[in-house]
């Protein structure tokens, strides 16, 4: 969940990761707590159990929003206290991937995360939405033996969608979803999700090449 | 010919630009409005239109935030802003957030789930 101050009110945007059985109670709680639902869909294919992503937004008093989020999460099995993550891999493990991606990633356990903000300004309701509010390209790798699994999303304007699809396919990366996350944004954005398990160097080149098809701050 | 418009309840810059047949960049430029593009009720804006005032579109279908249940619809843009109160959020939610370019993020990992693909 991402919170941003707008004048004397706070804005929240985010997504809830839900089992199918959790969706209806969560929707009820979202309505009761004054949130707006902006999308409900898959990000991946063939996962078990089936996971759905419910995107939300809200504007109002900061702590009322936070209480609302707590109320919503309380009807899911989401734990509030974190469990210890698996041991972080040595920094040099991802050095080739970081070199190809052109920046340092954020290491969490067996996962490395990269974020690339778009170069253009995204507005909603006349307000510029910062890239950290879920509108940066997200690229994640997880170590899987000698290979890596990768998933994430590209944040695209319409004309970028098919060049990115073609590029990903060239590198054996599967497109798993293309859809909205927001309702009123300008320009209109499409979020493209992907999945692959392969040699991490090959995947990195493919994803970097795909980023090159977009209006993105690469460094 | 440009004229002055007084910001009303529920207005947004996008809405005003659309209503008066101009563009958001033009509206921002002539009024010297910079990031984060706040306006407030009662503010007088220069509307950069060339066409006759009688031909402007006064029947725009909606102002996006007006009447929804998550806003008071009393002007969602304010003249001043302040950083988000990270410590209050963290205390309330009982976990650490991360701050980046003015955005405070919290993650709630589904440790209860093992997902296989």
Give me the secondary-structure topology.
The complex is a heterodimer of chains A (219) and B (117).
Chain A (H helix, E strand, L loop, with lengths): L1 E5 L2 E11 L3 H10 L3 E6 L9 E10 L1 H12 L21 H7 L4 E3 L2 E7 L5 E2 L2 E2 L7 E9 L2 E10 L1 H13 L3 E6 L5 E2 L3 E9 L1 H12 L8
Antiparallel strand pairs in A: 1-2, 2-4, 3-4, 5-6, 6-9, 7-8, 7-12, 9-10, 10-13, 11-13
Helix pairs in contact in A: 1-2, 3-5, 4-5
Chain B lengths: L2 E4 L6 H7 L4 H7 L13 E4 L38 H8 L4 E3 L2 E3 L12
Antiparallel strand pairs in B: 1-2, 3-4
Helix pairs in contact in B: 1-2
Question: Can you walk me through this structure?
Answer:
The complex is a heterodimer of chains A (219) and B (117). Chain A is an alpha+beta fold and 219 residues long. Chain A is built from 5 helices and 13 strands. Chain A has 2 domains: 2-73, Alpha-Beta Plaits (2-Layer Sandwich), CATH 3.30.70.260; 91-211, Alpha-Beta Plaits. In chain A, 25% of the residues lie in helices and 37% in strands. In chain A, the strands form 3 sheets. Chain A has a 6-stranded antiparallel sheet with strand order 5-6-9-10-13-11. Chain A has a 4-stranded antiparallel sheet with strand order 1-2-4-3, with helices on one face. Chain B has 117 residues and is of the alpha+beta class. Chain B is 19% helix and 12% strand. Chain B contains 3 helices and 4 strands, in the order βααβαββ. Chain B has helices spanning 13-19, 24-30, 86-93, and strands at residues 3-6, 44-47, 98-100, 103-105. In chain B, β3 (98-100) and β4 (103-105) form a beta hairpin. The longest helix of chain B is centred in the C-terminal third of the chain and has 8 residues, at 86-93. Chain B starts with a strand and ends in a 12-residue tail after the last strand. Chains A and B meet through β1, β2, β4, α2 and β8 of A and α1, α3 and β4 of B.
């Amino acid at each position: 969940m991402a919170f941003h101050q707008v004048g004397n009110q706070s804005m929240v945007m985010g997504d809830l990761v839900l089992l199918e059985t959790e969706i209806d109670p969560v929707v009820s709680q979202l309505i009761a707590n004054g949130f707006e639902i902006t999308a409900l869909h898959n990000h991946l294919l063939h996962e078990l159990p089936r996971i759905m992503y419910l995107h939300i937004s809200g504007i109002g008093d900061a702590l009322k929003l936070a209480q609302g989020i707590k109320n919503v999460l309380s009807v899911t099995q989401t734990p509030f206290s974190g469990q210890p993550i698996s041991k972080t891999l040595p920094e040099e493990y991802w050095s080739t991937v970081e070199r190809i991606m052109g920046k340092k990633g954020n290491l969490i356990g067996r996962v490395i995360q990269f974020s690339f903000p778009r170069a253009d300004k995204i507005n909603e309701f006349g307000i510029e939405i910062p890239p950290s509010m879920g509108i940066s390209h997200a690229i994640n790798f997880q170590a899987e033996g000698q290979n890596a699994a990768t998933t994430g999303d590209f944040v695209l304007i319409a004309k970028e969608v098919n060049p990115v699809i073609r590029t990903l396919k060239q590198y054996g990366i599967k497109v798993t979803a293309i859809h909205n996350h927001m309702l009123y944004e300008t320009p209109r954005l499409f979020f493209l999700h992907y999945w692959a398990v392969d040699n991490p160097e090959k995947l990195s080149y493919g994803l970097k090449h795909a980023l090159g098809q977009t209006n993105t701050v690469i460094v | 010919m440009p004229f002055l418009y007084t910001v009303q309840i529920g207005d947004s810059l996008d809405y005003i630009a659309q209503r008066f047949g101009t563009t958001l960049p033009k509206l921002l430029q002539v009024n010297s409005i910079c990031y984060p593009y706040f306006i407030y009720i009662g503010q007088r804006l220069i509307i950069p239109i060339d066409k006759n005032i009688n031909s402007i579109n006064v029947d725009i279908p909606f102002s996006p935030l007006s009447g929804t249940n998550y806003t008071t619809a009393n002007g969602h843009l304010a003249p001043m802003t302040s950083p988000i109160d990270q410590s209050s959020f963290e205390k309330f939610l009982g976990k650490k957030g991360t701050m980046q370019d003015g955005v405070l993020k919290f993650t709630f990992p589904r440790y209860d789930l093992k997902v296989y693909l």
